[in-house]
Amino acid sequence: MTLEEVMKSLEEMGTEQTKKTFLRHGAKEPFFGVKIGDMKKLVKYVKKDQELARSLFHTGNSDAMYLAGLSINPKLMTKEQLQSWAKEAHWYMIAESIVGAVAAESQYAIELAREWLKSDDELIEDCGWSTYSHYLSIAPDEEIDKEEVRELLNYVENNIHTSKNRVRYTMNGFVISVGSFVPSLTVEAMMVGQKIGKVHVDVGDTACKVPLASDYIEKVEAKGKLGVKKKTCIC
Description:
Protein name: DNA alkylation repair protein
Largest sheet: none
Strand content: under 5%
Low-confidence stretches: none
Mean pLDDT: 97
Order of helices and strands: HHHHHHHHHHHHHH
Number of helices: 14
Pfam family, one: DNA_alkylation
Distance between the termini: 22 Å
């Protein structure tokens, strides 16, 4: 499929109801309002063409950007391309679910996470916490720098409530990821979760809620899923 054909298909899949839902969540124009499940029907056509996937992201259309993330091969992404994606992510769903996930499966995961965590730009820092969280969900334990993770947990404990809006959300998610996917640090993550308590995030005109990190980790433990890694964090 060509870029024009994919964009036409996305437009045909879009609905006003889905668009209204995404707008309530903070989506930025332009986009058609395509459900993720419907969008996945196009992945088999796009993933064969890395250039097409990159072109889709650079359209600035939120639906196309999400499809690009579902279709791209992270292993073939350069550091510069990933940095460009982070700068172009214009709302949190693209920053967290696409840029963060794709970067986490690239060879530059931790390098970029560290860089983005230092940014003063809310969505780029958002990409940083999301990337690190996604990375923990797929990386073998022996490859994880436990001391660095401990330092980040300490940073979250001391700074989460004064951080930028979406950064608070992904910081909370980081604590959950540590507790859920790194068993040797579960107790420490639980303690941090209990100390930070309820995290307040403006989620727009939606019914979304920010989970209590300690409660979430306890539920994962109750299911016997602590330390169970994902095959992919792109979804």
